[in-house]
Amino acid sequence: MTITDWPRTAADPDPDSASPAAVSGTPEPVSRTLGSVSDVAEFVSETESGTGTDTSPARLTGTQKWTAGAIVAFALALAGIGLYLSFEHVAQFAHEELRFGSLGKGQLFAIGVDVGIMVMIAVDLLMAWLKRPISWIRYPVWLLTAATVVLNAASGAPKDRAWELLDYVAAGAHGVVPVLFIMVVELGRTSIDRVVRPDQAARDSIPWLRWVLAPVATARIFRRMRLWGVTSYPEMIRRDQELIAYEQWLKRKYEGDISQATEDELLPMRMAPYGYTVAQALAMPEEQEQAAQEREEEAERRRLDAETRSEVAKAESEAERLRAKGKVELVQAEIDGQTGQARAHARAQVSAAERAAALEQEALDRALMAEARAREAEAERKEAQERKAKAAADLEAADLERKAAEQRKAAAEADKIADAEADAIETERIAEVRRRKAAADLEAAELERKAAQKRKEAAEADRVAEAEAQAIETQAIAEARKAAAEADRVAAERERAAAEARRATAEADRKKAEEDRRREAALADIARAKKEAAEAERAAAETRRVAAEIERAAVEAEDAAKLKPRERAVRKVARMILAAGGDTDRLPLAEIQRELAVTSPGTASEYRQEAAELLAGGYRPE
């Protein structure tokens, strides 16, 4: 083998193990060697993990049932022994060392821990039996069991001397029965799981000897097996060996410098932590390119399908048009043929009796013309009646709008008068209240002024009396009078502040009155605006009424003149131009189409042009 050849795998792949990430179209290894390493690993896995591929029958025999019953009985006996051995020690330790109030409370604590362990174990076994296992429930069981072991060991720890070898043996002996019980429970749980779910894929365990010899590498293998769902230990070993062989091949290819390798060649090392094999990683670029090409092809196919559907629709539409045109031409040809036959027959008859046929044809033409004129006159009469009815309806609507405008005007006047009266009453009431309040404030100010005058007179009298009795009054009387004078001064200051407050209140009342006046002016403006709007609406209604009168008179004049429909339409457009201000361009064609019920903008344009010429010639509706 040269240095550029594909490396040989160290072990054959396990056909029973599925890859963690399914990659379609993974190429098979180019060559295979003897699978000695893989065979040894399989032997170790099967002998030490006990996970064979053969499934036991679904139903138990009589002997198997008796054996299972005996195992359950011994497991319960083991549980009872463990509870009996640990109960007294845990209760006494909880009372003495964990500060439970009494021995009874310590016993309740021990019972609670043991009952909790048994309940969670029972729930775990029941859910495993029901094919709904709860994986996390075993961890609290282990934790509580470890706590029980620790409490038992602590209860037997020496208190007044150092630990000896026998003390460690004794502490370990306290954990033998609980740990043994947990092992039996785990064994029972696994057995139940395999009985009720025989088709579940078994997971290989890694041999303990590998954990001892290579703990770090084994931990990596264990992590990858759990992360990416690889259940076969030999398959995981084969992948590692294949990756190592591929890496050595790259080193030989690039003379020890792997950094020279391309990105695609480095994919196996980069994708190995994510559960990819060497073959899967090397096939990734090609598969991704193929997927991208398939996506592009799918997009191109959808685009071509859309174009094809569009072309087919166009072709079908063109075919329908051609078929319709052919039918029209066929009918036209039939009509032409029938017409030609009739003309030939007529010419034959004319050759026999030309004069009689000519007279008969002339009489027939006159009859047809008379009938056509009669139909035209009937159509004009109906159209005139319709226009007259429409004009009458417009006149009635204008009258109704005028009456409604007058009613709204009257209502606006009444609202204005009512608002003005309400505002006047409210303003008069507010002014009366404010006037009374001002009078009361004035009276209070007058009383306070008189009281201040009296206090001033009293102070003056006190000053005179103080001057007269200055020689005989004591120091205490002088201090009292001084305090009284200070109190009078403070009272005068307060009165001045109160007067300032009243002045500010009066100013605020004045401003509020000003605001009320402005509000009343605004209400008057609003009422005036409403009145003007009602006037404008009444004027508009009057304008519409006059227009309706003009239209009605014009229709009657047209009926009297026996105008043709086109002449009537042109005059109606002329009246519309006059209503629009006399400017022909201001009248849109869409409005002409709507009023005259014509679909062609060209016809509407012709009507507007003829109407402009009619107006230029002096036409004015009476």
From TrEMBL:
The chain crosses the membrane at residues 66-87, 108-130, 136-153. It holds the Pfam family DUF2637. The keyword Membrane applies. Residues 292-318, 375-419 have a biased composition (Basic and acidic residues). InterPro entries: DUF2637 (IPR021235). Residues 1-33, 286-318, 375-424, 447-466, 493-517 are annotated as: Disordered. This is TolA protein. The lineage of its organism: Bacteria, Bacillati, Actinomycetota, Actinomycetes, Kitasatosporales.
